[in-house]
Design brief:
This is Beta-ketoacyl-ACP reductase. Residues 5-179 form the Ketoreductase domain. Belongs to the short-chain dehydrogenases/reductases (SDR) family. Pfam families: adh_short_C2. The chain is built from eight helices and seven strands, in the order βαββαβαβααβαααβ. It has 237 residues and is α/β, with parallel strands linked by helices. It has a seven-stranded parallel β-sheet, sandwiched between helices. Helix 3 (92-120) links the parallel strand 4 and strand 5 (123-128). The longest helix is centred in the middle third of the chain and has 29 residues, at 92-120. The structure holds NADPH dihydro-nicotinamide-adenine-dinucleotide phosphate.
Length: 237
């Protein structure tokens, strides 16, 4: 039987994060999600407010989750944004905003979770990166930098905490049908599809399956890995 864990998914009110939260709920775990409004998580999950650009708000969210469900045992750092534009038009602010949310945001939540994971002598950290982090993408220098940075975090975390029953892995989704990709022009979507060996965009549930597996006891010996879930787009990571 699977051990019931306390799971926290950042940005679990919509898109990929929501599907991840739903998959953990379906497996019987205690699930909390963050959203910026503090509302909108799936039924059965505790929704708490957190902005990952603000350490104080993260601390408050963790305290609420701990009070309700005990220490976080599985952390999924999923919250992310894009601010796409070609390099010559990209402002320093565009770059910093994306790094602050996607990369420093992950650092903040992982740092807050780590004391509890160490005390617990068991833990799972899953970072939601992107095929773009290692493949690159025009107009996404800020986003690609933030997403490849997550690999460095997972691998360093593995070296720091690997002997304590704590694993840290990266899931690198390809193009997944969510609000983030719905804004792409039709022609761009078709162009992307033609370069994906699977010939289609992925579904949020396909990401969620990889994440729940990495968090399970079956994946205890997998750490510092980058698991692509991208229909073959980024082969060679
Ligand atoms: P969505 O845009 O649908 O959702 C983004 C989530 O992140 C929301 O829950 C949002 O919360 C949260 N979020 C954004 N900024 C902050 C912040 N400052 N503090 C706290 N939460 C924040 O994105 P997806 O579901 O598509 O993407 C989820 C993750 O997967 C992201 O990291 C993304 O980069 C990655 N990804 C997505 C791909 C795709 O094709 N969709 C492909 C590869 C990777 P709120 O609702 O409160 O704004």
């Amino acid at each position: 039987m699977t051990t019931q864990r306390t799971v926290l998914v950042t940005g679990g009110n919509r898109g990929i994060g929501r599907a991840i939260a739903e998959a953990f709920l379906a497996d019987g775990h205690r699930v909390a999600v963050t959203s910026r409004s503090g509302e909108g998580g799936p039924a059965g999950a505790l929704t708490v407010a957190a902005d990952v650009t603000n350490a104080e708000s993260i601390d408050k969210a963790f305290a609420e989750v701990e009070a309700a469900y005990g220490p976080v045992e599985v952390l999924v750092a999923n919250a992310g944004i894009t601010k796409d534009t070609l390099l010559l038009r990209m402002t320093e602010q565009d770059f910093e905003d994306v790094i602050d949310t996607n990369l420093t945001g992950a650092f903040r939540v992982i740092k807050r979770a780590t004391k509890g994971l160490l005390r617990n002598k068991w833990g799972r950290v899953v970072l939601i990166s992107s095929v773009v982090g290692l493949y690159g993408s025009p107009g996404q220098i800020n986003y690609a930098a933030s997403k490849s940075g997550l690999v460095g975090i997972a691998r360093s975390l593995t070296r720091e905490l690997g002997s304590r029953n704590i694993t840290a892995n990266v899931v690198a989704p390809g193009f997944i049908e969510t609000e983030m990709t719905a804004v792409l022009p039709e022609a761009t979507q078709e162009q992307y599809k033609s370069s994906i060996p699977a010939g289609r965009f992925g579904q949020v549930e396909e990401i969620a399956k990889a994440v729940t597996w990495l968090a399970s006891d079956d994946a205890a010996y997998i750490s510092g890995a980058v698991i692509p879930v991208d229909g073959g787009l980024g082969m060679g990571h």
